[in-house]
Design a protein that fits this description.
Blueprint lengths: L2 E5 L7 H10 L12 H9 L9 E7 L3 E9 L7 E6 L8 H16 L4 E7 L3 H9 L3 E12 L2 E12 H6 L13
Antiparallel strand pairs: 1-2, 2-3, 3-4, 5-7, 6-7
Helix pairs in contact: 1-2
């Protein structure tokens, strides 16, 4: 796999690179698409990039070098989530699928959990297709749950993969509508 996740040190040697990456890119499908230096510094200070609930990595590609940032979240709750941010010039190349596979491998080989979750906006079609390509299953569609600055909220769509799905390469089906009136 061409992707390596390299744990970063947000308060030490990776501090300046992290601030630079987060402030020079715009992340249009995130709740806060444009971050300021002050916002990133405050997040670092409160442990948002590394503490008992969060851990962060640089995403390294064998040919392209550093292509992004990945944060594992909710680590103390038993079912981690992730935040993926690719460098602007490298988006649209299909790299997210390799990153998601590497993140999934990392979670299931280093953490004692049976599921891994992710969420995105309903209009982030590329990421939604990436989830499906990687064997993840849509588990929720939260209507008007994702705030959009200057606009109406959009749906948040949740996907997950189970350890057994990762181990077998087969997605466990979900009975979506299990009740009738």
């Amino acid at each position: 796999m061409p992707i390596t996740l390299t744990r970063l040190d947000p308060t030490g040697m990776d501090h300046d690179d992290l601030v630079d990456f987060m402030t020079r890119n715009e992340f249009g499908f995130h709740v806060r698409p444009r971050l300021t230096r002050e916002e990133v510094e405050a997040a670092i200070a409160r442990g948002a990039y590394r503490d008992e609930d969060n851990d962060s990595c640089w995403v390294e590609h064998t040919e392209l070098g550093r292509i992004g940032f990945l944060r594992f979240e909710d680590l103390s709750e038993g079912t981690p989530l992730f935040d993926l941010r690719l460098d602007t010039p490298l988006r649209g190349r299909g790299l997210a699928a390799d990153v998601l596979r590497a993140a999934t491998d990392h979670v299931f080989t280093t953490m004692d959990t049976h599921r891994f979750e992710g969420q995105t906006r309903e209009d982030n079609i590329a990421m939604r297709k990436t989830f499906l390509r990687c064997g993840w299953l849509k588990e929720a569609h939260y209507r008007e749950a994702w705030p959009v600055g200057g606009g109406a909220p959009v749906a948040s769509v949740a996907y997950a993969i189970l350890r057994r799905d990762w181990e077998t390469g087969r997605t466990t089906p979900l009975l979506w509508e299990d009740l009738t009136l």
